Amino acid sequence: MLPADIRDLDANDPLATYRDHFIVPDDLIYLDGNSLGALPRTTPRAVQEIVEDEWGRDLIAGWNSHGWYEASDRLALLLAPVIGAEASEIAVCDSISVNLFKLIAGALSLRPERRVILADRSNFPTDLYIAQGIARLLGVELRLHDSVEAMANAIDHNTALIMASHVDFKTGLIHDMAGITARAHELGALALWDLAHSAGALPVTLNAAQADMAVGCTYKYLNGGPGAPAFLFVAQRHHRLVQQPISGWFGHESPFAFETEFRPTSGIRRFLAGTPPMLAMRALQCGLEIAAEAPLDAIRNKSIALSSLFLELFEARLAGHGFTLASPRDPAIRGSQISFAHEQGYAIMQALIAHGVVGDFRAPDIMRFGFTPLYLRFADITEAVERLVRIMDEGIWREPRFHQRATVT
Ligand SMILES: *Cc1c(COP(=O)(O)O)cnc(C)c1O
Q1: What is the dihedral of CA 146, 152, 157, 159, to 10 degrees?
Q2: Per-residue pLDDT band at 1 (split at 50, 70, 90)
Q3: Strand 337-341 to strand 366-370: parallel, antiparallel, or no bridges (unpaired)?
Q4: Angle 144-149-150 (CA atoms, 0-180°, nearest 5)?
Q5: Between 52 and which of 22, 56, 211, 292 could a Cys-Cys bridge form, CB atoms 3.0 to 4.6 Å apart?
Q6: Gyration radius from the chain CA atoms
Q7: Considering only CA atoms, which of 333, 323, 324 is closest in space to residue 300?
Q8: How much is the average pLDDT of 76-100?
Q9: 304-329 in b/e burial notation, b at 16+ Cβ within 10 A?
Q10: End-to-end CA distance of the chain, in Å?
């Protein structure tokens, strides 16, 4: 592609102005918004305000006078259109890991006569670890399959729950949420989806897909900040019967009655546990305000255009360097990332980061490049590939400093 064509793509980009909603260092090409999203321009001020004006000045009164108590409900309203659910079905709280614990146990409470959870080995490790913990705790069986398809084919009348990621974190493969959920329902099982790599990156339609439950994080494509509170979704039809084991006072019908017995409140708030981190909730609100406003179809179109351009240039310029595509070639089943496998992937990624292009590495050999349409330009894609070409052609990645492993990759 000619430089003029790239300039045209950026000039005609309907999302171009969204880059100004974020603070992105000028000299950095950030292809890791799928791990930690960028800083919204409104966040520093909003956090400063809640610290100084609300906490600093009003102290405990803030729970009433600044609506801290309702923060989950307020954020749920912003998130609802992004994931295709009603706000009354969403709670914003805790981490994906903790919310998975609540929901897996909750699903088992809805299918007490069934003793099997199905999952697939390609799911994110914490999802599997939490399921393992619950299986041990409750004496149910966790059966792992090699792929989501194999898992879907194994559903039977003993299956209480299937769980999977909507978009695979390593390869970016999009799974058929509606089809697999329908298969689970035919056999009386429930479906729990992890939206970590789809919420904010592509249109998600939980209710149209009839999903029973979902979790997701907000520090990736939703730009809530490192460790931002996660969310959970439970379809309205389950609210009457579902129970969750972390029965904390924020899920009580009347927390400030200080009763001895736990009585769950009626709606989604029964999935809250303890006092929410208000500073983090405020930072998250800034990210969600952008997500609620940005048109998801335009995000998806640009995501496909960015990843397709990257793939085209990558394959044209880097053939013969030992990279193997690890993502679907068909953009219709590809999330907002491209992954390549390379046996020196770690060192190559370190060299690339040192040259101002940030992607990440997932063991054993996957180099991940994430595309965040709200703040990436097409020119960033061409420049990223050019820098990688130099690193490969000149063997820069061979330098010893690029082979030392850090704790977080
Ligand atoms: C990022 C991610 C997580 C992270 O879980 P936390 O509890 O927020 O640390 C979980 N699952 C998937 C699929 C992820 O991509």
Answers
A1: 60
A2: confident
A3: antiparallel
A4: 45
A5: 56
A6: 22
A7: 333
A8: 98
A9: bbbbbbbbebbeeebeebebeebbbe
A10: 32
Q: How far apart are CA 87 and CA 74, in angstroms?
A: 9
Listed residue (319, 330, 306) closest to 31, CA to CA? 306
Please tell me if the CB atom of residue 272 comes closer than 6 angstroms to any atom of ligand 1.
Answer: no
Is 230 near ligand 1, meaning CB less than 6 Å away? Answer: yes
Neighbour-count burial for 15-50, b at 16+ CB within 10 Å, e otherwise = beebbebbebeeeebbbbbbbbbbbbebbeebbeeb
Q: How far is CA 204 from the centre of its chain?
A: 12
Mean pLDDT of 384-390: 98
Report the separation in Å between the CA atom of 288 and the middle of ligand 1, taken as the mean of its atom positions. Answer: 18
Q: State the average pLDDT for the chain.
A: 97
For a mutational test of ligand 1's pocket, the pick from 102, 130, 169, i.e. the residue with the most ligand atoms closer than 8 A to its C-beta, is 169
368 carries an active-site annotation: yes
d(CA 201, CA 221): 6
Ligand 1 atom closest to the Cα of residue 197 is 15
Amino acid at 170: K
Respond yes or no: is residue 124 known to be catalytic: yes
Beta-strand (E) ranges in 218-323? Answer: 231-234
Contact 159, 149 (CB under 8 A): no
The pLDDT value recorded for residue 409 is: 79
Query: For the segment 304-338, what is each residue's pLDDT rounded down to a tens digit?
Result: 999 999 999 999 999 999 999 999 999 999 999 99
Confidence of residue 340 (pLDDT cuts 50, 70, 90): very high
Residue 219 is among the residues annotated as catalytic for this protein: yes
Q: Give the three-state DSSP class for 218.
A: coil
Give the pLDDT mean for 163-168. 98
At residue 261's C-alpha, the angle toward residues 258 and 266, to 5°, is: 90
| Residue 227 CB less than 6 A away from ligand 1 | no
Give the pLDDT score at 277: 98
Q: What are phi and psi of 160, to 5 degrees?
A: -80, -40
Q: Angle CA(174)–CA(178)–CA(179) in degrees, nearest 5? A: 90
pTM exceeding 0.90: yes
Give the mean model confidence (pLDDT) for residues 344-361. Answer: 97
207/377 Cα distance (integer angstroms): 33
Ligand 1: which residue has its CA nearest to atom 15?
Answer: 196
Considering only CA atoms, which of 176, 202, 181 is closest in space to residue 335?
202
| Matching residue, tokens 């405990």 | 60
